[in-house]
Specification:
Elements lengths: L22 H5 L3 H5 L10 E6 L9 E6 L4 E3 L2 H5 L8 E8 L2 E7 L3 E5 L17 E7 L2 E6 L13 E6 L4 E7 L4 E7 L2 E6 L4 E6 L5 E5 L3 E7 L5 E6 L10 E6 L4 E7 L11 E3 L5 E6 L6 E7 L4 E9 L2 E6 L6 E5 L8 E5 L5 E6 L4 E7 L1
Antiparallel strand pairs: 1-2, 1-27, 2-3, 4-5, 5-6, 7-8, 8-9, 9-10, 11-12, 12-13, 13-14, 15-16, 16-17, 17-18, 19-20, 20-21, 21-22, 23-24, 24-25, 25-26
C-alpha cells in the first residue's frame, strides 16, 4: 500500500503551477500556436490512465489509450505540452464541467486541464494540503484533504476544502478529523469516507451540520446505486484491523448502515478499487488475502453475494469499466519504479490484451 500524501503551502491567490516546468513560457503562446505542434492530438475520445508515479520523486503521468484505433500514448501530457512535465504524483483525477482536475501530491496542488490536457491557467496550492479526492456540485469542488503534518493515526487536522471553480480559490475549509478519503454527494449532503476511524461523515451543505454513521471498519470509497443510496468499501488496515471488511450499504434517506456484506481482504490501496456496470446490477471490487494473488470479485446487488471474477492478479491497484464498449480494465503496478500494466478483459472475464502504462496506474477516465 502506498503511503498517503498531499498538498499545501504558498501564498494567497492562484499561482502558476510550480509542478509544471516551463508553464509560464508555454502559456504565453496562443492556443493556435499550441495546436500547430506536430504531435498535438486534437482527438478527445479514449481511455486516460492516471499514473501516480513514485512518491517523493515525481513521475506522475497520463497514458492515453485510443481503444478504437488500438493506440497507446504514454506521457500524454508531455506530448500535448512540449517542454512541460508533471512533477507531482497524481493521487486522483476526474472531469467536472468539461475541466479535468488532478489531485497532485508532493508538490501538493490542484491542477486543472482541458480535455486536450492543456493547462487551463493556474494550479492551486493555497488551502490545499495533501488532497485525496473530489466531487463537484454547482460552482464548487469539495476536496478531501489530510492536512499539514498528519499523524497517520487519528488525523486531527484533516478537512474538506471548498474550492470555487469560478474564482479559483479555496473559499472555506470544513474541519473533519479522521482522514477523509472518498466522497459522494446526495441530496445536498456530502458523504465522506473516513480512513482513520470507523465512521462515515455526513455534512449537510445547507446548514453545515455534521453527523456520523458508525461502521464496522474504516472506509475508503463510495459508489451510488440507482436509488442514490451508497455502497461503501470497508477495509481492514494495520492501524484499524477489522474482521468485517467488505461492502457496506448506506440508506441516504435515513443515513443508516443497512447492510454489511463481508469480504476478506478488500484492498486498502488508494485507487479505483470499486466500480459497477452500467445498470449497477453488478459491482466489481479488488480484494486479496494477505500473501495470495489479488482478485476482482463480482458482487450481485440482487442476491448480495460475491463471486471471483478474475483471479491470480499481481500487484493489482484498481478496476475500471469502459462505459463505451463494456470492457473491464485491471490496473496493475510493476513496482514503484517500473512501468505499470493495464490488462483488458471482456464482460465474460476473458483476457483480451495488456497495455504498458506509467508507474502505478491508480484511476482511469473515459471520454467520448
Amino acid at each position: 500500500m502506498y503511503s498517503k500524501s498531499k498538498l499545501f503551502s504558498l501564498s494567497g491567490r492562484l499561482i502558476w503551477s510550480l509542478a509544471l516546468i516551463g508553464a509560464m513560457a508555454l502559456n504565453a503562446c496562443s492556443e493556435d500556436d499550441n495546436n500547430d505542434e506536430p504531435k498535438f492530438n486534437k482527438d478527445i475520445p479514449g481511455a486516460y490512465f492516471f499514473n501516480f508515479g513514485n512518491y517523493g520523486t515525481g513521475g506522475g503521468s497520463v497514458t492515453r489509450y485510443d481503444f478504437r484505433k488500438n493506440e497507446t500514448t504514454n506521457k500524454y501530457f508531455e506530448t500535448q505540452n512540449p517542454g512541460m512535465t508533471i512533477n507531482s504524483n497524481i493521487q486522483y483525477g476526474a472531469v467536472y464541467n468539461d475541466t479535468i482536475y488532478l489531485m497532485g501530491n508532493s508538490a501538493d496542488e490542484l491542477i486543472s486541464v482541458d480535455k486536450y490536457f492543456k493547462p487551463t491557467g493556474n494550479a492551486v496550492r493555497d488551502g490545499i494540503e495533501k488532497p485525496r479526492f473530489f466531487v463537484g456540485q454547482g460552482d464548487y469542488l469539495y476536496i478531501s484533504c489530510l492536512g499539514a503534518d498528519p499523524d497517520w493515526q487519528e488525523m486531527p487536522g484533516s478537512y474538506i476544502a471548498v474550492y470555487n471553480t469560478k474564482t479559483r480559490e479555496v473559499e472555506d475549509k470544513i474541519a473533519l478529523p479522521g482522514g477523509p478519503e472518498g466522497l459522494a454527494l446526495v441530496n445536498n449532503k456530502l458523504y465522506a469516507a473516513l480512513n482513520y476511524k470507523p465512521q462515515a461523515a455526513v455534512i449537510d451543505l445547507t446548514t453545515d451540520d455534521i453527523d456520523f454513521i458508525d461502521l464496522p471498519a474504516v472506509s475508503s470509497y463510495f459508489l451510488k446505486d440507482a436509488n442514490e443510496n451508497l455502497y461503501v468499501t470497508l477495509v481492514s488496515t494495520h492501524g484499524d484491523p477489522s474482521d468485517k471488511a467488505g461492502l457496506g450499504y448506506i440508506n441516504t434517506t435515513t443515513d443508516e448502515l443497512e447492510d454489511n456484506y463481508v469480504l476478506e481482504g478488500v484492498s486498502s490501496t488508494y485507487a479505483s478499487i470499486l466500480t459497477a456496470n452500467s445498470d449497477r446490477s453488478t459491482l466489481y471490487l479488488v480484494a486479496a488475502v494477505w500473501g495470495e494473488p489479488g482478485s476482482i470479485f463480482a458482487f450481485d446487488t440482487e442476491t448480495g453475494e460475491f463471486s471471483k471474477f478474475i483471479e491470480n492478479l499481481s500487484a493489482v491497484n484498481g478496476v475500471e469499466i469502459n462505459p463505451i464498449n463494456k470492457d473491464i480494465y485491471v490496473l496493475q503496478s510493476g513496482s514503484v519504479s517500473e512501468a505499470g500494466i493495464v490488462s483488458i478483459y471482456n464482460v465474460e472475464g476473458t483476457h483480451q490484451k495488456d497495455l504498458n502504462v506509467g508507474i502505478s496506474p491508480y484511476w482511469a477516465l473515459f471520454l467520448d
